[in-house]
Design a protein that fits this description.
The protein is an alpha/beta fold. It has one domain: 3-Layer(aba) Sandwich (Rossmann fold). It is 46% helix and 14% strand.
Length: 285
């Protein structure tokens, strides 16, 4: 099913208090959709309900709490009848050299960035399967495709979500459900500011690595090239498309980074081709 008219759709978006989630909720509502606008504190999105009465539903949702996930999806379905588009957007950044990572902090990061989306996917799939249509959009990151020093754990959560997204796409295609990983580069959101977390453990030997990356990211906050409103319109266009991609990169920097990685990867495959092939059993004549 193609959603050529957004006004016919019901969206469920996580992490709508600020940033891309907020911009996307505003764009979908402006296009005529009905939207479950979720945030850990629904008061932060109450103005959208006032602006779009009957079409915006503000819901409290901490994606790490399974009961809240189930209740929020049920309330959306009971209010609007179903869910057409799920956007897993809630998440945050975490900077640490791999040696500096603190287990409890990393587990909390995975609970939000990976297991949170898993809970939402599992909650909406019965609704989508019953209707044999739907679109699941997982907001990952260019760092979920190309890792960088100082952000290994954040990258790990997004790499995991990328892998899950690819598998899910194959599993649900027979039900008419579309799945896309949307991978932004640097955008002017709170990711590099208020919501960015650092490991509570620091090792002085990495001051030119993770620490340097933190300073660089913090100084760039508010000047990133990515426009959240433009990203929201790109996602709206994605949902409307007849030919939905499995991956969508957002931002010129994301495209540049991924093309460089792909070129380097291809070069390594070619350089080590004979070694790779040498591990097969000999072909019998």
């Amino acid at each position: 099913m193609t959603y050529s008219s957004i006004s016919d759709t019901v969206w469920f978006i996580t992490g709508c208090s600020t940033g891309l989630g907020r911009a996307l909720a505003e764009a979908a509502l402006a296009a005529g959709a009905r939207v479950a606008v979720t945030a850990r504190d629904s008061k932060s999105v109450s103005d959208l309900v006032a602006q779009y009465p009957g079409r915006a539903l503000a819901l409290n949702l901490d994606v790490t709490r399974s009961a809240e996930v189930r209740d929020a999806v049920d309330e959306c379905s009971n209010t609007f009848g179903h869910v057409d588009v799920l956007v897993n957007n809630a998440g945050y950044g975490y900077l640490a050299a791999v040696e500096e990572g603190v287990k409890d902090e990393v587990c909390t990061l995975f609970d939000t960035n990976f297991f949170g989306p898993v809970s939402l996917i599992q909650a909406v799939l019965p609704i989508m399967r019953a209707r044999r249509c739907g679109h699941i959009i997982n907001i990952t990151s260019i760092r979920g495709l190309a890792g960088g020093g100082g952000s290994g754990y954040y990258s790990a959560t997004k790499f995991a979500l990328e892998g899950l997204t690819e598998s899910l796409r194959e599993e649900v295609a027979e039900f008419g459900i579309k799945v896309t990983a949307v991978s932004p580069g640097a955008f002017r959101t709170d990711w590099a500011g208020r919501s960015l977390r650092r490991s509570t453990r620091t090792i002085k030997h990495y001051t030119q690595g993770a620490e340097n990356r933190y300073e660089t990211i913090s100084k760039r906050d508010g000047t990133q090239a990515g426009d959240p409103s433009a990203a929201a319109q790109a996602i709206i266009a994605l949902v409307r498309s007849d030919d939905v991609p499995g991956h969508l990169l957002l931002g010129t920097a994301a495209m540049t980074t991924m093309r460089k990685k792909m070129a380097n990867f291809a070069d390594e495959i070619d350089a080590w081709e004979s070694t790779s092939q040498s591990t097969d059993f000999p072909i019998s004549e």
